């Protein structure tokens, strides 16, 4: 979004991010280097100033499209050395307390996640070896400035769209970089669709399933992290109804937030960013646009669900995750605990109307939330409780405040 800094499009996007309570956003650039493949290290300055004013931490994405290789003149992807230099200068400038921060009197704000080459597996024209060397160079360049910064490949599309866990070969191509830790994890894009990727048919159509199958296809032994810079429910055809899309989107959110690592207990998710939060149907078509109106931005039903989850769980931490059997999660904060149940066939081993929850001794009241907001408030007690959720085939959240309102 660097090319939109200060323009109405970026202001609307920041309205959307604030509207759902987000604090993180992906910042894309197609112009981060010149035709000689030399980085232009002030490329993000204006966008960084805007992001800082808006209170949104950027994930920096360096774009390279496979079609560039057939332009006249061609723009090759570049060498390891080209990408090393890009990683070095951009990390040096835009990391927290980097050059940009010092020049602008800003402390503690900057990019800690750097990414490159969105969806290389769609066109699949970049040679695998060249793709590997570009990611290796970027990672080594970033880490030469600060080893704690994270580098990940841009999101992959074809586990979702083609059911291809090799990601058309781009996954195995970077196996050594993932195994060594140069790349922190795998970014997968998941677009659920009633016809092509129907989560209503069970967790075979889930982010967790793709993550596990991709890791197996790559042959990883290290327990890498999970990233998602694009996901959504396609609000078209059988899922066109706004209420249905919202209900399914709540399941999709927790599918992404609740991804676990190899031990089936560790939370593997670093970030999960839906597409397309800022735009209306006029701009992005009916499938993924999550705004009902522009200027001011107002949320569509899916964005309302995201806002609800952020309000309930935004400051919480996972204390238990079981996406593969019960379909339940537990999160905690100083204010409350939150229990989540993916109560859909194929997402839990015991679907139904009754949710059995074990609550701490201090529990006195509970709030049952669904995709459409707060359903009911009722008394509870320490120990096992049976909750009648009234409707099957939905995702539910149970908030138990430590100090009843």
How does this structure look, described?
The chain has 405 residues and is α/β, with parallel strands linked by helices. It is 31% helix and 23% strand. It has 13 helices and 19 strands. It has a six-stranded antiparallel β-sheet. Helix 2 links the parallel strand 1 and strand 2. Helix 11 packs parallel to helix 13. The longest helix is centred in the middle third of the chain and has 18 residues.
Separation of the first and last Cα atoms: 41 Å
Average pLDDT score: 95
Task: Label the overall shape.
Answer: globular
Helical content (DSSP H or I, runs of 4+): 25-40%
For the record, what is the CATH homologous superfamily label of the largest domain? Glycosidases
Task: Based on the model shown, name its key terms.
405 residues; alpha/beta; TIM Barrel; 2 domains; four-stranded parallel beta sheet; 19 strands; 31% helix; 23% strand; disordered N terminus; GH; Glycoside hydrolase family 5 domain-containing protein
Tell me briefly what this model is.
With 405 residues, the protein is an alpha/beta fold.
Itemize the secondary structure elements and their pairings:
Elements: H1 8-20, E1 24-29, H2 45-54, E2 57-62, H3 80-94, H4 99-103, E3 113-116, H5 120-123, H6 128-145, E4 150-153, H7 158-161, H8 170-173, H9 175-180, E5 185-187, E6 190-192, H10 207-218, E7 225-228, E8 231-233, H11 242-257, E9 269-272, H12 281-284, E10 291-293, E11 298-299, H13 301-313, E12 317-322, E13 328-332, E14 336-343, E15 354-359, E16 365-370, E17 373-379, E18 383-388, E19 394-401
Parallel strand pairs: 1-2, 2-3, 3-4, 5-7, 6-8, 7-9
Antiparallel strand pairs: 10-11, 12-13, 13-14, 14-19, 15-18, 16-17, 16-19
Helix pairs in contact: 3-6, 11-13
InterPro entries: GH
Protein name: Glycoside hydrolase family 5 domain-containing protein
Organism: Rhodoplanes roseus
